[in-house]
Amino acid sequence: MGLDLEQAAEGGVLRGRGTAQGEGSSPAADGRGVGGVGQAQPRPILTLGYPVSANRYWRTCRGRTFRSAEADRYKDSAKRAASLAGLPQFDGPVAVYIALHPKLTKKGVASLARMDLDNCIKVTLDALNGVAYCDDAQVVRLFAEVGHAVRDGGLSVVVRSMEGRA
């Protein structure tokens, strides 16, 4: 079973991969579209690699805190994925929906060792900062859960505009 991120966007559970449709049963069900106006369009689901550990994300040297080289590579991969998916950089408030997919073991079952969901959120929001939105202060709605296990682990992420929504 895949992740239905649009269902999560409307308060449901993450269940499908690919592209999330607009609200309702059809792409044009509400006419708001991705940005809140015009014909509803599919929202891209970003498929990212397994996130960098929060413990390896930030480094401190001589009193300065900076992203590690590993974190920079992860942020670059998020930028490439957003570009390939056609995800715009939003200027207004956004909602972010995240599914953390644990790694599959050689036996084909979900690994018991996985990143804590709260650390996954921090790493993901930072990786998307300056990519899907200008500033993480724009995130006004957040939903995250542990999804189904996949071969090398990973994330499924939907970012959508909350402009004009109550």
UniProtKB/TrEMBL annotation:
Coiled coil spans: none
Any one Gene Ontology BP term: DNA recombination
Region of interest (Disordered), residue spans: 12-40
Pfam families recorded: RusA (PF05866)
Cited InterPro entries: Endonuclease_RusA-like, RusA-like_sf
GO molecular function annotation: magnesium ion binding
Membrane-spanning intervals of the chain: none
Protein name as it appears in the record: RusA family crossover junction endodeoxyribonuclease
Organism field: Zoogloea dura
Lineage start: Bacteria, Pseudomonadati, Pseudomonadota, Betaproteobacteria, Rhodocyclales
